[in-house]
Specification:
By secondary structure, the chain is mainly alpha-helical. The chain has 3 domains: about 25-230, Clc chloride channel; about 250-480, Clc chloride channel (Orthogonal Bundle), CATH 1.10.3080.10; about 490-635, Roll (CBS-domain), CATH 3.10.580. It has 29 helices and 6 strands. The strands form 2 sheets. It has a 4-stranded mixed β-sheet with strand order 1-2-3-4. The chain has a two-stranded antiparallel ribbon with strand order 5-6. Helix 6 runs antiparallel to helix 7 and helix 11 (about 250-280) runs parallel beside helix 15 (about 350-375). It is found in: Membrane. This is Cl-channel voltage-gated family protein.
Amino acid sequence: MAGRAGPATRDTSKSPGGWRTRILDRLPGLSAGRPPAVVLAALVGAAGGAFAVFFRELVDASQAFFFGWVRGVLAPLLGPYAVLWIPALGGLLVGPLVYFLAREAKGHGVPEVMEAVALRGGRIRPRVILVKAIASAVTIGSGGSTGREGPIVQMGSAIGSVVGQGLRLSERTVKTLVACGAAAGIAATFNAPIAGVIFAHEVILGEFAGATFTLIVIASVVAAAVAHGLAGNQPAFLVPPYELRHPVEFLFYAVLGVLAGAAGVLFIRTLSWFEDRFDGWKGVPPYAKAAVGGVLVGAVGLLVPEVLGVGHGTMDAILRSEGLPGGPPGVPAGARIAAWAGRAPAGGDPGLAVLVLAGLFLFKLLATSLTLGSGGSGGIMSPSLFLGATLGAAVGTLAHGALPSLTAMPGAYALVGMGAVLAATTQAPIQAILIVFEMTRDYRIILALMMACVVAVLVSTALSADSVYTIKLRRRGIRLRAGRDVTVLQRIPVQEAMTAKPVVVRRDWPLARVIRVMQSSRHNGFPVVDENGHLVGVITLADIRNTYPDEPERRLAVAVEQAMTPNPVVAYPDESLAQVLERLGRYDVGRLPVVARGDPRQLLGVITRSDVIKAYNRRVLQQVPGTAGRGMASLAGPA
């Protein structure tokens, strides 16, 4: 009896990691066909689908609060100008929330997921889920010109990451679950499970792999099923039946593809420009910039209210050709633009329709760039679809006006334009084609859609090396390629390798003192600071030798500021070592001062070639023991 009592009374549930150990014992690896893997993928998909529906309700509640209760309070005081301050109030709430709790929740979210997959093994902080949900709901609900899909992708990816990290799964497994969460977000947002699968492979993972495909499909299908059960099974847009009426239309759709490619690049560069301007703006605290951007967005919305928020209703009207030539009667969107032109806002006037659509395009571009550039939170797919709808409808209006018997109504071109601009902006044509197809469930226009999307991507990639996702990463020194072949140096930030408290010299010191410091420290270059410790330059042994080269005694009394190099090339703590190594070689220097992005005079440290080599070898030893020597030789050669 005693021999049987031990095993019978053993309680592993209370042992450290007991439940986790039992799961891991049954989870030899995450690959297609293994029940535990299927279960995890399905759970991530279900959670992603449910969270997408929850987020949609949260956005609706936020809109009701800001444009119901808040507007009701402000309207008696400000009249129509109340709309000017509602987005500002939203920005006032979002800025501190994101800045102090989860800065990766700023912006449209997808680049942060791509970075996590490529550089951090898919690890995303759990707090991102809640912070992103609240920040994006407040941004959209208060009138910010963004979409829902980016936040849901980031939240779904974070759910997958949290599951993987909680079970202490392998890095490859965590990445797969992150992709499952991203697919679930797209599937539930656009009611497009196939597009979700393609998005996860084409954008998040950067490659197609058979081992992960089945699991991502499961997550996407489960997410769509959960969303259907909770919110209904309706297409995102109710579009009249459109079809290709004559082969001559392929010419118009090709032209639309070219224009969409240029429009996508314009969107990428405009958004990037506003992000750079707000990031470099030193007169306002970082957590207050979203409020300033909100005031500007409110001003745009005061002029053209259709560009606030997601813009679903405006896109729906354009797709039905309401108020456009050949379409049903109605007042076209953007009636205020028509009023500025001194024209009646009635439909049927091709010239007026093109003017109004062009105005909607430009104001939406401005509103979205201000919202996201200033620090708001939301996605870029819906704005891309909006831009595509207005551009396509404008082309369709001109085509239908020229050849009414041979061309479809403007709404058909708006539908194709949505996919084309989305393809150009993301440089991911397959997911763009599938998103539009699954949103409308109309196959009859698929040939035109495919042509326009492919042409748009060809134009976009010819004009811009980066998509709207990768340009944000490239500015951080991260260059992602097909297959996500990221080098070791791209994974290491400068702050991990730099010398945090470097030896510095004062600008008023004589060179004789600097020479003594060089002899004692065995360094041949130093940052130069002023009386307040602010960086003003660098000085090297070469600078000293070039000062009165024929009078070595005279040079000893010269002040550092007369011999130093002012305005030195610098590095930033969040840059990658790959970017720093390229800069060291380009300028043929041995060290770079590391400064704060917000204040180039604030010296944080120094990074040298030797620091880069040491950090590289440390990382290689952690990942692939035994290869450090070969890595050092390859890096040390040019130095």
